[in-house]
Design brief:
- By secondary structure, the protein is α+β, with helices and mostly antiparallel strands.
- The chain folds into 2 domains: 55 residues; 139 residues, Beta Polymerase, domain 2, CATH 3.30.460.
- Helix content is 45%, strand content 17%.
- The protein contains 10 helices and 8 strands.
- Strands 1-3-2 form a 3-stranded antiparallel sheet. It has a 3-stranded mixed sheet with strand order 4-5-6.
- A hairpin with a 5-residue loop joins strand 7 and strand 8.
- Helix 7 runs antiparallel to helix 8 and helix 9 runs antiparallel to helix 10.
């Protein structure tokens, strides 16, 4: 396979995105890559990330490419999982305590940052497609429901009720995971109230 074919396969795999750090692992020099980007009129969307001219920038995918520590959570995760049909007004992310997220405030998009203990940060991370079809790291449905119940006074009543009902009625819910997370987070009794009423 030629260098050009390798790059084009990569762009196809990533829905029109070219991530230079990943392509340079394939024995393709930065010089060759720069020439390809220029010849094909690719647009730079952030450091080391380019898109073809027929692709609409995916803010969630781009933000995570720049900041690999961020996990989508809160209303953003609920929306991506289909647990609410209301699109998020700001991008909700979770990072471990001690992470310097000040640079995230300088973007064109509004980002809401939540800090958690490092041991809690890793619980329930999964990858799902963004609205544009690019894979992003997000908390799984069970972690989202635990976070929602733990912080219910921070959510609008309608979002809270819809998300809990949608989850409890879904066929792919994993109640065993939900209870493990609830135990870890110290909210087992609270979560059980919803499970007993809605399942």
């Amino acid at each position: 396979m030629t260098k050009k074919e390798k790059i084009e396969n990569f762009i196809e795999k990533y829905n029109g995105y070219l991530i230079t750090s990943l392509v340079c692992n394939e024995d393709i020099s930065k010089t060759y890559l720069a020439k390809y980007i220029k010849e094909h009129g690719m647009e730079k969307v952030t450091r080391g990330v380019y898109i073809t001219d027929d692709v609409w920038p995916d803010e969630l995918f781009i933000l995570q490419q720049r900041n690999s520590a961020i996990i989508y959570s809160g209303e953003t995760a609920l929306y991506l999982h289909g647990l609410t049909d209301r699109e998020y007004s700001s991008i909700c992310i979770t990072v471990p305590q001690g992470y310097n997220a000040s640079h995230l405030k300088n973007n064109d998009v509004t980002v809401s940052v939540r800090y958690v203990r490092p041991d809690s940060y890793k619980t329930g991370i999964c990858e799902i497609p963004s609205s544009s079809g690019n894979m992003v790291k997000v908390y799984d449905k069970e972690r989202c429901i635990c976070d929602l119940i733990m912080n219910r006074n921070k959510y609008e009543v309608q979002i809270f009720q819809t998300a809990v009902k949608e989850y409890m009625s879904s066929k792919d819910k994993k109640l065993s995971h939900l209870m493990v997370y609830a135990d870890k987070m110290g909210i087992r009794d609270e979560v059980m109230k919803y499970v007993e009423v809605l399942v």
